[in-house]
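Narrative summary of target 7.
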Amino acid sequence: MSPESTARATSTADPFARRLPVTVITGFLGSGKSTLLRRLLRHPGMNRAAVIINEFGEAGIDHELVAASSEQTTLLGSGCLCCTLRTDLQETLRDLFVKRRSGEVIDFDRVFVETSGLSDPVPVLHTLRTDGLLGVQYRLNGVVTLVDAVNGMGQLDTMPEAAKQAAVADRLVITKTDIADDATVTRLQQRLASLNPFALCTTAIDGKLDPALLADIAPRSAIARTEELNRWLTPIAADAKRAGQTTDPTQVARARGSHDAAIHSFCLWFDEPFTWDGLNAALQALAQLRGPDLLRVKGIVHVHGEAGPIVLQGAQHLFHPPVTLEGGHDTEPKSRIVFIVRNMTRESIESLFAAIGTLATPAH
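Modeled conformation, tokenized:
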């Protein structure tokens, strides 16, 4: 789905079942991305993975697994495939798929893309959303961001790249907790929960992480995974209750304060159902006016004429195709959308939605 054209999710078939999941692994310099990948690739369930690395250097994939060579692809010790990104991502993914189909490389069943420590992961998300040919072969699984427990707070304070990497994550993994004191780890967990309330946050020592945490991160079928959706909204509702408010969490960001003046999150609730035209108009306006600062959008919205609530997901200028939430799992009659934004106020987005006559008025 793009702001210009919203596809309606009316089929219960899974159109993504045969597409290869692509998981983006990002994190600031020294956060442990290569260590995590090394561990993952040793797991029996990951023995048919392809890995795309957009930078050798920083730590690389450990020399026990891959040695830099003149070849674009290298077979890892685990049997996985490693590819150094020397051109653009589209070309690399297309080349890998052609080689897979012709039998030149292993029949890989998933792809991990490791970004460099200073990279913005959003262009990777856009690549997978805007390239129609890639969309036939691959699907975005989600973004996994690693945060160093020892240096993470300082990086979030001083490095905009680190804050954005955390803000766009679907999974947050705190590393090096074995060498950081408990109080520091707790403060970092609270900071990340404030910055990105709907990402599952876990810890990993020496890269040890249950691969199940990376499976089917993004709802991929017309029947969205309820447990994943609940994770988006529960933290905000919980904060509202702790702040002594009602279950409507629209004022949570104000109540709890924010360590990050530029990047913060909030939730808008809407009393009346949207129309498809109205929803498209609001998303298009947001994307055109403030796309680069609209880091993540996730929500459950009611639309006139649809049998059930619609799951909404987006990042900056682009939005995922909407999927229908399984009937009976969402009993809340109001629509609610969570925003993670940079240098934008809740009031400005609320006013934009209210100005669109075919949309519901935000609840107070």
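Residues 20-214 form a domain with the Rossmann fold fold (CATH 3.40.50.300).
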